[in-house]
Amino acid sequence: MYVTGLNEAFHINRNTLFKVTFLAGVYSSPQGPLVVQIMVNDYLIIGNKVVPNTAARINYSLGISIDIVDMSNGFQQVDSGVIGIMLPLTRVAYVYLAPGVYSFNVGARSFRSRGVIDGATVTYELTQSQDANENTIGAFPLITTFSK
After folding, report:
1. Whole-prediction pTM value?
2. In the chain, what are the domain boundaries?
3. Cα–Cα distance between 54 and 44 in angstroms, integer?
4. For 73, left (φ over 0), alpha (ψ -120 to 50), or beta?
5. Nearest by Cα to 46 from 91, 1, 112
C-alpha cells in the first residue's frame, strides 16, 4: 500500500545519487511488524539494490522469504500483547540513478494486522556526478534499467 501525499518525480540529466529520508509517527498493533519501503518507479530500494515489488524480490540474495526480504531494511513492531504504541520511525535509502525520469513513493506493509502512519515527510538530497562514466558511488551501483 502506498502512503498518500509522499510522491515526488525527478527528471535528471546526469548520473545522480539520491538520499531519500522518510520520517513519521508509526503505529503497529501487537500482532505483527510494520515495514516501510522507499520506492523508485515502483521498485523497492533495499540496501544497495533496487528490486521488483513482486514475489520475485526473493531472487536477489536478500533473504529466503518475502517477509525476511522486507524486514531486511528494518521494521517497527510492538511486543506488548495488549496495546500498540505510536513511535517515531526514520527510514533512509540511497540509490544511484542514470539520466531519466523517476517517480519516488513510500510503501507500507503491515504483516498481520493494521498499521498507521501519521505526520509523514520525505526529503531528498541529490548529488550529481561530474563523471558520466562513474558506474558506482561507494557501494551503490549505477541503475540504468527502468527510467520512465
Report:
1. 0.85
2. 8-143
3. 9
4. alpha
5. 91
